[in-house]
């Protein structure tokens, strides 16, 4: 579950049109949220409040062996925060937890077209600055009783640059770290420089989005695929330990069903580690992910699976179906509208000669089946996405398992009377347990009590936790 | 005291096996396989795969001093030379150090790295041609052994299975070598010897009830015998016979001297307890010289312990009858002072009043008088002391006997008598501060001299 402060930060980025999916850091976010989702380890209660449109605070109480807590304040001068975020009662479950990420193709998300000349960019920047693009966010959090202080400043310098400064300070001066992150967005590339005072870690990240230009978009069949490539280089100056990786990501949709799928391939050339993942939304309510890890040097391998099951309240199902049937009509109209009274046909009538107009009409006519097809595909894809986003889910089950670690991770997240709940456990199957299972299968006449005995010892959940969140 | 140095231990091939075992256990002391959660670069135990000490280590004793200082029993300076030794270590390490370093950083400020995975690499480190040349000081104390390395010259060829790491590891090893010889090795040896000499360390630290506490205190009193039967073979038989004679000579309850009148002990160089009063009576002191003038107390209680106290009194009768000779007293005091100070050139501070030159001439006759000052034993019966001068010093006087004996049998068992010895000197100082001796200054009041044979 997203913490309230993370939710606010995300809303801030949405309101300032900063695309976090374009970060190299988030290139494998989809498979990570499906397989390596965090599981609460303690009892945690969090209550958050939006005192004004610009200030937020959170009180958190954690009970794990001892009671501890934290108090967080956040201030932002972003304008339309009110629209971007809601209290936990009115927030949809999809919004408040990490799930499959719909990666928007580069061109559709970005207001600044790469094909456009500099002048247009200038007008755009001036326009954005007029709207107040120099937004910033200030965040502070103090923990009790450890007295650790967290602070963060996010600052949009201009539409293409964002600076993030994080710092952490402990009372006994044992750990004082400052982390500076500078992101620069230019054309299809996002470059990122990071410096952390913890062992003087320096990092450079880079991501490039291969994309079809918007002009191509107008002529070709609807193409919602995006292909990104990125890399990172790290070096801890004090210990001279290097780190690097390079990754590919390909997101597309199944043509006939419109269901999205994401493929990633990451490679760490220094340590010979290859990781590939495949995540897909197989239906509206289910998502599956598989990840295969392989090390070239040690030939270690690991296969992990993860899945999500979204559930609705059975009472609301009938109501939803009614809405669904209503939704069919405008959607059909939408398909027609693209072809019939497309803007470019009406616009072209003004400045173009009759002959050219006729030619264009002919071209349009010959291309009409494919255009129709394109519109259909786009409609299906958009409909699928919209439907998922507007669906009123009540809870979600997440499961993940890994063949090498012999574990089963279970997480349940749901909404109950305006409270957001999250409960999870991590069950380890130790080697002795596995052996006993195999023995049990092989010799069925073995007394069951003995089996139960070993199972009780080794099958205890390694961690269990519950988080309750309430925000207004 | 003599001992045999068994070279066979080093000659034997089992030495290599033994050192391999010891090294393995010593290196793995900090490694805890169950503590895998805490990220550590070491992923398995350090295994000593090969050791080879082809040549016998040269062990040269440059200086050996037994029982010189009150603090240590044996002090020695040794030269150790080891040549062409070889040690091979094997372990498994984590390859991605960035991951190891970042494991501890809090989530809030941890940059998220993609596929920042690690693999475990087996690493083999070979130390070839180890040559060690060191001069070390060895102190054997009452219940411990301390060794300090003075002049260490260590040289080896290092070979690592991972070439990238070879230089850094070599550099770090050279840096830490200094620390090893200055700090780590001496402390390890000291702790080991402490556990060897006393059996206290075996007692558990857990709280125990009173009954077992009594048991424990009993245990601490009983000396631990470090030599077992197999070791006795290696001891010099001549020394053992001597020691056993000393021990058996004490197996008597007689307080009278067993040997002849003028000989101190049956064994030359040894003083037996029952002959102590003779030894003391021959010491130069005022009370001994004027022993004939002593008052014989009515209460004739045998107490040999008195002799340690009344060694420098002038009997009352001498003063009354004015039988004293000033020159005699000066000579006695001079003699006492010479015995007490190690430095012979040091002259005692003395206030001298020059009346005429005749007195100076008298002083030059000193050597003759000295001989006279040694009292001749006239009486066979035990001399007694004034009643008011009896001070029980039983506890103080006993350590004296330990000191008198050149080879006390306890030393084998290494029971500490250090603390008792110190208290003996200290208490006597306090006791003597109150009164003057002869014509000496108040400021230079000296304790009774330590008796040396």
UniProtKB/TrEMBL annotation, chain A:
It is found in: Mitochondrion outer membrane. InterPro entries: Mdm10. Keywords: Membrane, Mitochondrion, Mitochondrion outer membrane, Transmembrane, Transmembrane beta strand. One of its GO terms (cellular component) is ERMES complex. It is a multi-pass membrane protein. Pfam families: MDM10. GO terms for biological process: establishment of mitochondrion localization; mitochondrial outer membrane translocase complex assembly; mitochondrion-endoplasmic reticulum membrane tethering; phospholipid transport; protein insertion into mitochondrial outer membrane. Component of the ER-mitochondria encounter structure (ERMES) or MDM complex, composed of MMM1, MDM10, MDM12 and MDM34. Associates with the mitochondrial outer membrane sorting assembly machinery SAM(core) complex. Lacks alpha-helical transmembrane segments, suggesting that it resides in the membrane via beta-sheet conformations similar to those predicted for other outer membrane proteins and porin. HAMAP family: Mdm10. Component of the ERMES/MDM complex, which serves as a molecular tether to connect the endoplasmic reticulum and mitochondria. Components of this complex are involved in the control of mitochondrial shape and protein biogenesis and may function in phospholipid exchange. MDM10 is involved in the late assembly steps of the general translocase of the mitochondrial outer membrane (TOM complex). Functions in the TOM40-specific route of the assembly of outer membrane beta-barrel proteins, including the association of TOM40 with the receptor TOM22 and small TOM proteins. Belongs to the MDM10 family. This is Mitochondrial distribution and morphology protein 10. It comes from Maudiozyma exigua (Yeast).
TrEMBL record, chain B:
Residues 1-194 form the SMP-LTD domain. Its main location: membrane. It is found in: Membrane. Residues 341-368 are annotated as: Disordered. Keywords: Lipid transport, Lipid-binding, Membrane, Mitochondrion, Mitochondrion outer membrane, Transmembrane, Transmembrane beta strand, Transport. InterPro entries: MDM34 (IPR027536), MDM34_N (IPR058825), SMP_LBD (IPR031468). The keyword Mitochondrion applies. GO terms for cellular component: ERMES complex. It comes from the Eukaryota. One of its GO terms (molecular function) is lipid binding. Residues 348-364 have a biased composition (Basic residues). GO terms for biological process: mitochondrion organization; mitochondrion-endoplasmic reticulum membrane tethering; phospholipid transport. This is ERMES complex subunit.
